[in-house]
């Protein structure tokens, strides 16, 4: 019962982050499941099954708050579903010994990307109003869907920054559209895992706990996306993902680092993480001061 409550809280926290940043539900949840010894393919399958419910609630909430561009949803979501099914099939055919470090490397890479992206640049919008083309969104969806299924998360970290970097869609609509499209990705990945694995290794109690926590948080996150500073949140979440998956890799058979080496790495990682958060807070406050002194200007970056 205690574990189910913990998983529900993780689902709630992960969805608050995901609905506010457009990423990190899968990465955060999968990281925890791996940390407690879940089979990599089963961990990804568990998260994607839960995401069918959370993304449905999240997408509906974002739609009600006017955060969804349906053209973007379809152009990225359908190729994303194809990529997710392929990724689920690929991961299911890897041995556990191979899959765990592979997944940790994917998650670690995504964590580094999230931390760097939000700490250094925040969210930029420089070409608002220009259309997002299918030839850009379709390959992006295909790659993001594949990474999402093989890494237990990655749809948001791959898709959201890429669309944000185009500067053609305001951040709240990027986040809302990516979250909504993830519903199709979650269904396709779940079908892929269930086809390849059956229900082996999947604890449906865990699925329900993650889903309930995420469903509770989804409407709150859709509202918070308007007011929360994503730059700071991105730095916080990126650090969690990096530290947790570094721990998994250092203990894996691939590296098998000594205690002294691991502790030294942890010290460095925590120091970098703390510096990143401090820098994000400072830059966010600086941007806030600039916006307050020039209220009639249109900001080039959105950090609040």
Automatic annotation (TrEMBL):
Highest taxon listed in the record's lineage: Bacteria
Please name the Pfam families in this protein's record. Answer: TauE
Q: Which keywords are on file for this protein? A: Cell membrane, Membrane, Transmembrane, Transmembrane helix
Output the Gene Ontology cellular-component terms: plasma membrane
Spell out the InterPro entries in the cross-references. TM_pro_TauE-like (IPR002781), TSUP/Inactive_protease-like (IPR051598)
Cell compartment(s), UniProt: Cell membrane; Membrane
Where are the membrane-spanning stretches?
102-123, 174-198, 204-225, 232-250, 262-281
Membrane topology term reads: Multi-pass membrane protein
Family assignment from sequence similarity? Belongs to the 4-toluene sulfonate uptake permease (TSUP) (TC 2.A.102) family.
Protein's recorded name: Probable membrane transporter protein
- Origin organism is Luteipulveratus mongoliensis
